[in-house]
Amino acid sequence: MGNMKTNDRTANETARGISTTCVHAGEERQKEASSITDPIFCASTYTFANTAAVIEFIEKKLPREEYGRYGNPGEKVVERKLAALDGAEAAVLYSSGMAAVAGLLLAKLNSGDEVIFFDECYHRTREFCSKHMARFGVVTHQVPAGDYDAMEAAINKNTRLLVSESPTNPHLSVVDLERFAGLGRKHGVETLIDATLGTPYNVQPIGAGVDYVLHSATKYLGGHNDLLAGVIVGSEEQLAPVRKLRGITGAVNSPHNFYLLERGLKTFELRMQRHNANGQAVAEFLHEHPRIEKVYYPGLPSHPYHEIASRTMRGFGGLVTFLIKDADWRATADVVDRVQIPRIAPSLGGVESLIEQPLVMSYYEMPVEDRKRFGIPDNMIRLSCGIENTEDLVADLKQALQG
Amino acid sequence: MKFRTRAIHVGNEPDPATGAVVPPLHLASTFVQAKAGVPQEYDYARSGSPTRKSFETTLANLEGGTHALAFATGMAATTCVTMMLSSGDHIVAGRDIYGGTYRLLHNVMNRFGIGVTLVRTDGDLSELKAAITPRTRLLWIETPGNPLMSITDIAACAEVARQHRLLLAVDSTFATPALTRPLELGADIVMHSATKYIGGHSDLLGGALVVQDKALYDKLYYIQNATGPVMGPLESYLCTRGLKTLELRVREQSRVAAQLADWLSDNPRVARVNYPGRAGHPGHSIAARQMDGAFGAMLSFEIKGGYEAAQRLVESTKLFALAVSLGAVESLIEQPASMSHASYQREDRLAVGISDGLIRVSVGLEDFEDLRDDLDQALVSALK
Ligand SMILES: Cc1ncc(COP(=O)(O)O)c(C=O)c1O
Ligand SMILES: Cc1ncc(COP(=O)(O)O)c(C=O)c1O
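^ Those are the sequences you sent over. The predicted structure of the assembly is below.
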């Protein structure tokens, strides 16, 4: 596999602009068959010319592929691109965001270890920890999002990982990443930020000193609502056991998916600029609208985390959460049903705008008290702004709110 | 309906919108909801997608199960089963399980307080029975086993599992549903590396679990959705496509494997042949009972002349490619001592019957004469 040598990739890729990184980082300049784009390797297994090649491979003298579960040339390209976007050394790609969560936790935690979450972190991640990892003897603590003192107080000698999402979903609370990372460093505990909503365009947790960043690449990184993927980025050394475990538990992505991911990444900066612009414009429009009780968007000065967000984020993303004034769940659903452009669907971060009422979409079967505890009122709507034209989205919301 | 008819038709209804005889591939990660609060079959692709469902429906039917789950790899399917367990639980597994399964049990599950005992499962089950403790929850077997094609009696294991209220899971990758249907023999879970015969063309990674019990399915589904190692849409389609020719391929590949096994047994350069279809194989009578009219397309043999001769042999073939993996239309060859079982200490390896001169062959879909001639010339040059 002569094409796997790294010396014809530019050494200083990280100094380049974001779209240059999106288009070129991680790729060989001269590819197989002189093709401008990377080929898709579907092969499950890779042949050896002779036994000497097998032995050379086993003794690690020759970097090459062996079997699809242990690596794929296209996977390496997209991993390098993702690492470059986050300003990190390495990335490990998975079949989904949840597979990335499970991959990191199963690699880093043992029976008896403890994890502390900010309680606005993606609820399925917390559930995975408090249900499954609990059966494996791992203890999960949750403290209020943004309460760094409570998080510090919960650290003990068994604590192995501090976890938060930033910004959070659907409240868009923003973590002070340096403070969060500093807490981990002070106590010798590793830190993980789920930056799915933030994306490497808007936030750079690795630069702030966080150990691991998680993305559901299903969302903005893929960006076209046509694939599932997840990734953990961090240092090569810290990710080595994570990568090794992925080879054992087999939660790898597929060559067709990660080619689509690589392709999606080429337009990542362009898309993010439009997502950010749409998010900001829609949030400002809603903020002024008489039927709106409250808007959650870190780009609005009224948002409690606006100051941290302005300091630490390049843009504020495409997700806008808002409450309809004096509306019960049905009146809120009516607004959702009246929009013409966003489609009613779970997920976020794709070119198509998506709208949902969290009560209905994600918390339907949850008792009222629990929904209160999670801060999910009946009149809440979450809008993932796509990359449609801003005026069209605003006009559509305007008519839906008139109805 | 018979197996092949079901392989082609069950789960493969023509597209109602266009009449397309092959349903369209759905790449969508999310599914539009017609109205707020009205649940639909699909909402988010990690939780289920039409193309994956189609493969799962066909496979469940072919295995005589009610539900199947498709995974990113065979190991992801196996991991899902082990994730049902809790700290303090215990697994009894066959001693010749796939190396990846061995590593999952010994290097991952042990960190979470889950114990494992490896036992001999081919032939006499006394060692297996003796290993069961009050904490044992899962019995994991693989048949035919690798690389000696050891045969485990699934029905007998199911009886033991029933007595002790254990779950019996069978890695049926080598047998495929065309030849063995473990659920019909009393197993609770069938596991496949779909990378192998189900895909059948060396061009995808995939895994699957099949069960008959809805409650067990619900548990496994919950874990699959929470941990997310699902099969992608194109792989799901290629697996559906692979199932349509599964029986043809497996029966033809098995027929050629049997011919090669006979030819190898008569070859003076070969010390021993391991193929369950031969009367001398220790698992032959069980295999004849639980394998449906053929004995699979995997075989192994020992070349006279040991390690170096085996090494020269695998380097001298022109059609058989030197590679790990198996189950595809291309024939593959490997030397367990230097490849799949290279991490074993030599004494441990010899103790389980994997000699220096052992060669494992995955018989593809090429013509018997061509494969025979290729092995013949390679045997000659290996022992020159
Ligand atoms: C913030 C966040 N983290 C993780 C995930 C899980 O990712 P995936 O759906 O790709 O498994 C999601 C989406 O579902 C998410 O929104
Ligand atoms: C018998 C058996 N079980 C399980 C596996 C694991 O499957 P996969 O490689 O698809 O993860 C394999 C192959 O690698 C195998 O041969």
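Residues A 69, 250; B 73-75, 98, 100, 142, 146, 171, 173-174, 193, 195, 205, 207 surround pyridoxal-5'-phosphate (ligand 2) (CB under 6 Å). Chain B has two domains: 3-244, 247-382.

Shout if you want it in another format.
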